Amino acid sequence: MLNDNYIAFSYHEGHFPLSCDGKAADIYVSEQDYAGVIRAVSDLQQDIYKVTQTNPQIFHQTENLKNSTVIIGTIGQSGLIDKLIAEGRLEAAGLTGKWESFVLQTVANPLPGVDEALVIAGSDKRGTIYGIYDICERIGVSPWYYWADVPIRKQAALMFRNGIYKQGEPSVKYRGIFLNDEGPSLMAWVRENFGDFKHNFYENVFELLLRLKANYLWPAMWDNTFYEDDDLNPAVADMYGIVISTSHHEPMQRPHGDWKKHKQGPWDYSVNEEVLYSFWEEGIRRSASYENVISLGMRGDGDEAMGGQLSFQEKIELLQRIVQDQRHIIGEQMQTDPSEVPQLWALYKEVQEYYENGMRVPDDITLLWSDDNHGNLRRVPTEEERSRSGGAGIYYHLDYVGGPRSYKWVNTVPLEKIWEQMHKAYEYGANRIWILNVGDLKPMECQLEFFLRMAWNMDEWNKDNIGDYSTRWAEQQFGSIYAEEAALIINRYSKWNGRLKPELLNAVPLYSSVHYKEADNLLAELHETVKLAEQVYQDIHAAAKDAFFQTVLYPAKASAQVLEMYIRVARSKMYAAQGRASANLEAKLAKQLFEADAALTYAYNHELADGKWNHMMDQLHIGYTYWNQPEEHIMPEVGSIKLTSEKSGLGVAVEGSELAWPRDPQLPALSFDTYARERRYIDLFNQGTDAFTFCARADLPWIKLNRTTGSVEVEERLWIEIDWNEVPVSDKITGSITLIDLLTSKAFSVMIHVMNPASPTREALTGFMETNGYISIEAEHYSTNNEGGGASWQVIPNYGRTLSSMAVFPVTVPSNPVPEPGESPCLEYEVYLTTPGELTVTALIAPTIDFIPGQGLRLGVSFDDGPVQVASAIGLTKEGGYSESDWEQSVILNIRSVVTKHAIPETGYHTLKIWMVDPIVVLQKIIIDTGGLKPSYLGPPESYRGSR
Which residues of the chain carry a pLDDT beneath 70? Predict the structure, then answer.
């Protein structure tokens, strides 16, 4: 995708004319080639016409070919391709016998009467198809032309730059998606447009996969059965070139829908062996002539753990016998050695525990490891497992139904997280199968494609060009003018949802409306982003509006509206408790946002593309109370107060406190320091219906107010700044601001504390300064980065809840339980502490699981030349076992914490050191708490850092 384009859109002497001067080159493909190849050739023909309005002719015989011709064929299936190779005219070295590889090459005088040919030759069926679709994409036809209504830009000429362009084997052998959790949205859309999940629906899915250079599908299965909904489904998949599996809990090519239709007795092999054996025989018999990867094993009925009265060990023994019997069925029904048939065993949830406790399957079976359903790897292959002939794969999620809460609406997994986790999986040898749970497929377009692009060519993607992907993706869909804006919007909404999924916004204390201006800053970003998205939507050319709406504007605006609604709900409750009239305003805004969500959903379902995507946004997403979705959208309960004229008058709240006068007699002081030089606020609020006037005065001339008089109807914010050129030098100076209600003559004073020490001066400071009892550090802002043990900490831009992340590369280096200089990479942070004594260091890390056997999720922390404390981010039960609640917290908050305590007796400069212990730890942020840390979702903004 990032490679140079071999297509030019204007005439160039010496380049091959796919289309020029109103005429398209003819296309030749042998009738003896695969039906899927011949079908893809017709797509190329149509795409050239869509781009140029010239229509290539397709020939299956060579006699009528002349001038410039496109020759397409598969090695071993096309006599002409084989002839060109035999004559040494087609560069096929390294192509023959390879998996899904192709070459694009211009050849002079390949046939009598043909001056020049563009040859598209594939090593196998899909290799040729991918070569064809590579051309389609390069001439400007997005893979999403159907699924996202991406317009096709017209061109006057299509010229192939002469040369040889080779594509070798893909990084991952089987690459695909799982249509899952498809009710209500995809299911209703399909049934309205196609009757059911039949071949005319799946043809659109198959084509999309091939255009994305994928080859693998787990079909929709909630209320459907791929093989019995339409007899043509498997045959058409095979013709297209799509490999079919049934999902992780549907063994032997029998969708769960088959069992629901034909159920005889319990889904329990220990008591119903004969029925199940026969049931599985039919699954293999009917699919034996198609290209499949057969799922083995067995879970409980309906994707649950295996039940029954069997002990853990008895379940292992039963499952081993099940796999043995399933292999016997495969050999018998397919008349071949089972080891020659691709198979997988999905180590999902409790099945992984069977494996970890000794269950084994033959080496030719692919071990399909899973994430934790929330994008965090549970396991990667060990060195010994990497030698297995069946290899290993990963089942990854962008959608899930289950605890802590289902998430099925818009994307919540940022591109950076996908890259970080799947790069590690690949480096540890999980390269046989990558399968992505995409839910309804929409609106996961950008993220789905990134996953598949990685699987196609891992070498194309690294930690530094993830942002380039989103920009190039947007450029492909909308053109270059708004590509950067579209990419910014996609990455922003993904970051919001990656911090806290929309379904969980009412499950935890939300972004603080009290501390660090956290909610205010986020709301400003939400509004800025939505305003940008709406402006681009207005300005972008008409043909691209539908595509932009569904892939950029809708997910960003919808995410922002729901997030803001919950923030307004929380504020309304706090303001009501404080006696603010503005509680009612916040409640009203929350209700308006709830209604706006419904209106935006209506626009997607009924107005977008003239109603083409009706039902696709039916998914409920507001009002969750437990793991499953509510039966309808539920407006959250808001706070409000009864307003009267008698209650009118001044109320006061200050930044950093939930206290409010006159309800509370005293409010905490507002603190200022010469380092951050941050302005702070006082909220002057009405308690009733009648407006009042106020005056405000500071007792010291260098305390500056943005106004000293005014009128308050509902609420006004008074901003305070310090004139640092005039403030005296002192560790702590105290002042005050007096606020007078001119309606009631009541007055209240807010204390001001100012820190302006003689040393260190702001100009002389190096490193991070402690103020207000804490230091907050973004991980990439280290003072020194020390390599060790052949590894180093490196930045992954934009990864994490705030700025970025620091990760260890190469990712496969061993753990170092006792980190020492030169033996373990170490990040150093220079800090200036003003509070001596005990302090707490919290290293915020990505919510990874300890997925490498024999390793943990540990960091080392030390100060200066003191001893290194090694601590783990994994919380355990009292008995020392796995803690479900610890894991739940990590995926809800999308963060883990490594916490250590240290005694620092002296103020002044110190060096905080963060040591690699386990290489899979990804560091995002560090907070040093000396006693002043306040609650917030993201932690304090970064402290002031001097660089002298």
Answer: 1-4, 948
